[in-house]
Amino acid sequence: MYPKLIIDLKKYYHNLNKMIEMTRLNELSLAVVSKVFLAEQPFIDVINKTTVEYLADSHLSNLKKMKTNKKKMFLRIAQLSEVEEVVEVANISLQSELTTIKALNKAAKNNNKVHEIILMFDLGDLREGIYYEDSYLKLVEEILTFNNIKLLGIGTNLTCYGGVIPSLEILKRLEVIKSTIETKFKLKLTLISGGNSSSIFLLEKGKLPKFINNLRIGEALVLGRETAYGNKIKGFYDDVFLLKASIVEIKKKPSLPDGETGMDAFGKKVIIKDQGKQRRAILAIGKQSVDKDDLITLDKSEIIGASSDHLIIDIKDQDYQIGDVLTFKLRYGGVLSLMTSPYVRKSYEK
Ligand SMILES: Cc1ncc(COP(=O)(O)O)c(C=O)c1O
Asked: Across residues 222-243, what is the average pLDDT?
């Protein structure tokens, strides 16, 4: 039955081992980000076979369900309403707000635990973290008074919102923060978690600054690409995930709608270019499961459009029949949404 995601765990294992090699050469520990595959246990079993140190996820439910001996890292800044659960399921969390860290301290105390945090700094990408130009020493001073919180280290996340590339100049901002904290409080920060898949281009060139000793990696492992420039990583597979969807209709039709046009099914004004007559196939998958722009065709077909349950493609002169199954590679958003969709079957190839 289709649509179906074909998930090749051998290819994931291959990519993961390559990434472990790369990080070890640079004396980095690795946090594997599991949210893109919903922390499903077949992936976790693969990760459990390796020397990876941390499993990181932005959903507490994912951290809770995974069966692993690896340390668990909560990636998204915690809500005040979930601090008890954070302390219960995560060994480490990324934090940026004193109010929340105070609440975590209390929750950890109630549970007789010491919870480790990574204090996040925003180096200019404008997502989470203390803005690098702002003062942070008072905050650190206060954190150090908490008995049930351990300041494990500092971290940053780049490129995800503002597209800022982790250049050496940008990362220098984190190095200044590290040495300022270490000098002022006469301590050594254990973990400097310096980025995600957008730092890999530096790693590949052997240029990742030495003060960084940890990366949190998700996308590169499933799509085999770094995310600063979108380049393929040498020796990595880009098809751990493939989508298969079947054709339910093939008809030759004009490319331009015939009649006065208003809005489409999603309230958007319809703007379509006239490309003459097309051999149009409809596939049984739609926007409810995946954005058409996150699909990559592997043949001569061109994706024309989609509604919630239909994907419309121009199959050109290819000899397809009703019931034929087309295969697509995926972009990051496609893997995320297809894995999350209850309408898509998953087939794990071991
Ligand atoms: C804080 C944080 N770190 C790391 C990652 C992993 O990013 P990427 O998938 O680009 O490696 C994410 C996103 O999933 C994140 O939110």
From this structure: 98
**Residue to probe by mutation, ligand 1, list 33, 35, 74, 92, most atoms within 8 Å of CB:** 33
Q: Which domain holds residue 282?
A: 241-349
Q: Are strands 214-217 and 29-33 parallel, antiparallel or unpaired?
A: parallel
pLDDT in tens, 21-34: 999 999 999 999 99
The CB of 199 under 6 Å from ligand 1? The reply is no
User: Do the beta carbons of residue 61 and residue 223 sit within 8 Å?
Assistant: no
Q: Ligand 1 in contact with 306 (CB < 6 A)?
A: no
Examine the domain organization and report whether 145 and 273 are in the same domain: no
Asked whether 218 lines ligand 1 (CB < 6 A), one says yes
CB atoms within 10 A of CB 306: 25
Nearest CA to ligand 1 atom 1: 75
User: 284: CA distance to ligand 1 center in Å?
Assistant: 31
Same-domain pairing of 314 and 190: no
* Residue 1 included in any domain: no
CA–centroid distance, 225 to ligand 1, in Å, is 13
Contacting residues for 260 by C-beta, under 8 A, at least 6 apart: none
**Strand locations in the chain (E):** 4-8, 29-33, 54-57, 71-74, 92-95, 115-122, 130-131, 149-155, 191-193, 214-217, 241-254, 277-283, 295-297, 302-306, 311-314, 325-330, 345-349
Question: Would you say residue 186 lies in a domain?
Answer: yes
Cβ 35 under 6 angstroms from ligand 1: yes
Taking only the tens place, the pLDDT of each residue in 238-268 is 999 999 999 999 999 999 999 989 998 888 8
Residue for token pair 């998958």: 285
State which ligand 1 atom lies nearest to the alpha carbon of 75: 1
**Of residues 94, 129, 132, 134, the one with CA closest to residue 115:** 94
H helices of the chain, in order, are 9-25, 41-48, 60-65, 83-89, 98-110, 137-143, 168-185, 200-204, 219-223, 332-340
